[in-house]
Amino acid sequence: MSNQTIKYIVPVAVLLILWFIPAPEGLSANAWHFLAVFFAVVVGLIIEPVPAALVGFTGISLVALLGLVGNPKESITWALSGFSNSVIWLIFAAFMFALGYKKTGLGKRVSLIMIKYMGKSSLGLGYAVAFSDLVLAPFMPSNTARSAGSVYPVAINIPHIFDSYPDKDPRKLGAYISWVAIATTCITSSMFLTALAPNLLAVDLIGKSTGHVISWGEWAGVMLPLMIPLFLLTPWLTYVVYPPTQKKSPEAPAWAAEELKKLGAITFKEYLMAGLATVALVLWIFGKEIGVDSTTVAISVVSIMVLTNVITWDDLISNKAAFNVLIWFASLVAMAAGLKKVGILDWIGANTQEMLAGMSPIALILSLLVLFFLLHYFFASVTAHVTALVPIFMTIAASLLAPEQLVPFTVILAGSLGVMGIITPYATGPSPIWYGAGYISQARWWGLGAIFGALYLAVIILGAFIFI
């Protein structure tokens, strides 16, 4: 039996096994059957027998077909509810921002400028790679597009200048650059609400659980003070823990300068893209105060990008990655909402409240944060992690924490999604790209992931003590 066939069989087996187990006391048969489909979807997202978007789409189709959430009209309304979700369209719009950076060449220019002015030493190159990611992070909700699509093509050429290849002197420079790149993109993914698509998905699920939708500014107010010191520390810490044998790199700035010459003078479209991105960022931060919704800002800027030919309409409608995420996340939002609709979250809340009622608030908060982080060892997708765990963790938190504790807790819980991507070679989108570059062995990656993962988790816990 082929590996692909096994991948097809496993989610179906999970569905059938759970389906025919009697429903626990307090849950209706429909709710239990919905949970069986939900778990099958999560397993499908982890092992991906078919594209992830198709897994979610199949899940909502099956639930609607079986009538597990109500009559036919209620079923189709529920199944399509995710496509009317404003957060999903914010994610879609942000993919167009990423396309604008790529098509105008602004993303590549930013990376080369960083290397030109900061790359005279190996440590400086580490910071150049880190800051290249940071500049793009607020506008790219796909850390795969940002780190693997924009930073990687530039950064991976740097070790070659010094004759550092996966099979020849990887520790000379390539291994250091690779680890700094993945470690810092994990941090920037937590730093900004719009730097990681699952952040936005988590915020939407949290809003449905608590009635409070975390704004861009609220997120930044908690996560920036935690992530900025960690971001500045990481290239240096990597230099200490996993040092390159090449300490100086005078050739790198010269190489970057030559590449910038090939790009030519900065174009009007690059200026326009930078200006539109800045306007969007300002309105994301202050829009709530002036009554402008974040998604309204995003789709308006995308419209201007198309009208000014920064990107074309054909670029927009042919962007497979954006439409893939649109269908994928819209399906998952509906699946997560279904947990509430059929009564599963209320049932979990009632049972866990009794079990955990004796814990102090701080012990409960720390336990939830640590468990949420460590459970990511079992997920190859941050999106699957969010879909499976955020509704459950929020149900527990909402029933046991005081209202003034709940909002900062939700920001820190969701904010951990980026940094937890450091722990394994499969934990977040860019990880397989940087691991696949071949400079870092699997054993070394797991070891470094444990060290940096412990540090990043410690910062998340520190945030709980500071803000909650």
Describe this entry's structure for a reader.
The model has no long low-confidence stretch (mean pLDDT 89). 75% of the residues lie in helices and 0% in strands. α5 runs parallel beside α15 (294-307). It has 23 helices and no strands. One of its GO terms (molecular function) is transmembrane transporter activity. It is a multi-pass membrane protein.
The proportion of strand residues reads under 5%
Q: Assembly type of the shown chains? A: single chain
Spell the H/E element sequence. Answer: HHHHHHHHHHHHHHHHHHHHHHH
Helix tally equals 23
Average predicted local confidence, pLDDT: 89
Question: Can you describe this structure in just a few lines?
Answer:
The protein is mainly alpha-helical.
What are the key terms here?
mainly alpha; 75% helix; 468 residues; globular
Give the arrangement of secondary structure elements.
Blueprint: H1 3-19, H2 29-47, H3 52-66, H4 72-79, H5 86-104, H6 106-118, H7 122-136, H8 143-155, H9 158-161, H10 174-191, H11 197-210, H12 216-241, H13 251-263, H14 268-290, H15 294-307, H16 313-317, H17 320-341, H18 344-356, H19 361-374, H20 382-400, H21 403-419, H22 431-436, H23 442-467
Helix pairs in contact: 1-2, 2-3, 2-17, 2-20, 3-4, 3-17, 5-11, 5-14, 5-15, 5-17, 6-7, 6-8, 6-13, 7-8, 7-10, 7-12, 8-10, 10-12, 10-21, 11-17, 11-20, 11-21, 12-21, 12-23, 14-15, 17-20, 18-20, 19-20, 19-21, 19-23, 20-21, 21-23
